[in-house]
Amino acid sequence: MNVKEFPAGTVVVQSEQPINALHVIAKGTVRATYPGGEFYLYKGDVIGACELFFDSHFITYQTEEASSIGSYPYSVTQLSGILHTNAEMSARIVTSMFRQVQEILDQYELARFDCDNFYHYLMDSYEGYRNFCSKHSISARALPGMETLSELVLEEDIPGWLGGYYTQQRKLVPAAAVKGQDPDFLQGLLLKASEDVYQVISVCRVLYDYKSEITNLLMSENRLDFFDLYASLLYRIGSHADDSTSLIAAISTMMIQLESQPSIDKEMYKQRVTEYRERLNTLDQAPEDQPAEGIAKADDIPDIRDSINTILSYAKVDEETANAFRSAVSQYSKLTDKNNSDDASRRLRLNITKMFYEIYEKAFIRSLHDFEIPKVLLMFFNFGYVDENLAGMDNAAYLYSIVNKLPTDPERKVYSVYEWLRAIYDGKKTPSRNEFDTDYQAHVHELKVTGKISASEEATMLKDKEKQVLFELTNMFQSVNKITFGRISCFCPIFSEHNILKELDKSLVSADKVAETFDQLRSVDFSAYYREVIYTNPNLGIGKEYVSVEILPDIILMPNIGVRGVMWQEIEGRKRTTPSRMMISIFQMEDLTNILVRLTGDYRWEMCKRVQGARWNDISEASLTSEYFDYIQFYKKNHELSPDAKDKIKLNMQKAKNSFKEMFIRDYVSWVLFEGSGSPRLNKIARAILFTYCPFSKEIRDKLKMNPLYKETMERYDIKLGQKLHHYNNLFQKIKNMGADIPPEIKAQREYLGS
After folding, report:
1. Helix, strand or coil for residue 264?
2. HSE-up (13 A, CA, CB side) for residue 308
3. I need a labelling partner for 721 at 20 to 30 A (CA). Which of 60, 122, 297, 735 fits?
4. Separation of alpha carbons 136 and 230, rounded Å
5. Can you list the domains of the chain with their CATH numbers?
6. Whole-prediction pTM value?
7. pLDDT higher than threshold 70 for residue 200
8. How far is 485 from 592, CA to CA, in rounded Å?
C-alpha cells in the first residue's frame, strides 16, 4: 500500500473522477460530499467502498484535517480477487461500507423531512403575510413562484424497508465475522450496496434541488422574496404598530432559516440583513419618504385625480361599458387579496381584462389623430394605468413624471408599446404574427379565401394602417401582455400597487439597460445575433461568399409590472435579415440579464429551426438543434456520459417538462452566465455542442485555453476557424493583386472571424 500525506482541505477524489484505486484512511478525517448531503470518514474507512461497481465516483472526498491515506490500484474486475485472497482488506471494505450506507440513509431521511417541513413553513409564511396585510387594509403583493409552488412528489423514492435491511445485515455480518464469509456473498452484498447508495444519492440530489429552488422564495438576488415582503410591510406600518413585534419575530425566524441553507449566497444574505437592521434602527427617526428628485408630489398633480373618468371620456366608450368598468375597478380595488384564485375574483379579473382592451383600442385609435395626448392617457397606454388609488398616489405621481420622457429609443430598437403601435401605423413596422404563427398578410388572404371578404376588400385591408394596428392590438398585444406579466392565473392588465415588488425607478427598463445587457451577453457569446447572408461581386470574381451580419432584436416594452420575457418571432415575414421581436415588461421585477439571456437562447433555437426547416432535428445535417436533439434523445445510451450526468439530464428534463427547447435554453443560460466566467456547469457533450455553435469570444477562449475541460472542443474550433481565416486571407490577397479595394463586407467578415 502506497501511503501519502494530504494537508487539510485537499480533494482526494473528485466526483465523476474515474475509479482506479481504493483509498484507506490511515490517519485523519475525510469529508464526503454530494448534492444534498455529507458525512465523515475516519481511520480505517475505505474511500469508494460504496462506489465499487461504477466506472467513476459520484461522491467527492476532501480531507478535513491533515491525513495519511493509503492507495491500492483497483478496477471492478479486481474486486472478486480481493475478496477471495485478501481477508483483511475485505473486512475493511465491508465494515466501512456498512457505516457509510447508514450515514447516507440518515442524510436522506433528514433531507426528506427538511423538504416537507420547509414547504409547509413557506406556505404558512405566505398565509401569515396575507393576514398581516388584510388586518392593515394593505393589498398583499404577489410573489412569483408561489402560485406554482407544490409539495415535493418523488417519482422514484427510497423503499421504507431499506434502512432495516442494512441494520439487520450489519448484525448478521459484524466486523469480526467478515473474514469468515463467503467471498461471493460479500461481492453480492457490496454490489447491492453500491446500487442502493447510488439510488439514495440520486434522490438526495432531487431533494437538494427542490430545497434550493424553494429557498429562493425566502431570499434571492432579485429581491422577489419573503424577506422583502415582510420587511417592506414592517417599514410601511412602522416599528410601533400593533403587529410590528410579530413581524420582527417572523423576520428573525426567516434569518434563522436562511443561515442553515447551504444554497444561499452568504454575502448576499449578510448584505440584506445589514440593510434591514440599519433600516429598522432608523425607522422611527427617518422623515417620511420624499419623492425622488424631479418628481412632484401626488397632491401637486391635479391631472391624475379621477384618472379613470379621464380615460373613459377620452375613449368615448358607451355609458353602459363605462359604468360597468368603473364598478369592476372599484370592486377590484377593494379586494384585499387581488391574486385570489376563487371563482368570483377570477371572473372579476377576466371581466376587467375584456373591457380594458376594448377601451384601450378606442382610446388608441383616437390618439392617432390627436396632436396633444393627455399625460394620463399616455400613462394608460404605456403602463396600463387606470386609477390613482389602485396604483398608489405616489406611484401615479412617478408615472406622471416620466411618461413624456421614457428612456426608450426606437433608433436603438427599444420601444415603448405605444411607440411600437405608432411605428406599425406609420408603416415603419409590420404587425406581428398571431399565436397561430400567421402574419397580417396571411390573415387577410385567409379571410378572402374563406369568402369573408372580396378581392377588392383584401387589397384595401392590406393598405389599411388602422386595421393593421387593430390586428396587433387584438393578437400579439393581448397574448404577450399576459405572458410577460408572468402570473397568468392572476393576470389583470391594470397597473396596481400590489404587483410592485421592488422600486419602480430601479425596475424601469431603459434602452441603456438593454444595450448594456446585450453588450455583456455578446462579450461571451459574440455570434449570438449574427446571421449568414450570401455576398456576390462578379467584378472581383466573387461568385458566392457567406458573410455574417449582426441583426439585433426589436425590444417592445409591454405595459405591465412583470417577471417574464417572450421571444415572439425570430424574423419579420420571410426575410432572414430582419430583426427578431422580443417583449418584456416595462417594469421588470426579475433580473434583466437573466431575462435577456433566456430570450437569446430561445432565439438561437428558433432561428436554427428556421434556417434548417424540416430537417431541424435530422442529425445527418449537423446543426445546433439537430445535435442537441440527438444528444437529449439518446443520452441514456451515451457511453461518454457518467451515471451522475445522466441522472442530472433526467432531472432537468422533468423540470423542463420534457421540452427539448426549454432544456437547451437552461443549458444556454448556464453557458453564458457560468461557463463563460470559468465556472463549469455542463457535462462534456452539452459543452461541446454549445462551444461549436455558440463559441466564446476570443478573450474568453484565450483565458480557457489551459482548462482541460475545453481543450478538445477548443482545438477542433481553432482548426475550423483557422481554415476560414486562411480562406479570407487568400481572398484579401487576391483582391489586392487585382489592385481593387477590399469590399467592406469582406473586411467585416474577416474581423468577425477574428473576434
Report:
1. coil
2. 21
3. 735
4. 13
5. 2-215 (2.60.120.10), 226-281 (no CATH), 298-431+473-499 (no CATH)
6. 0.79
7. yes
8. 14
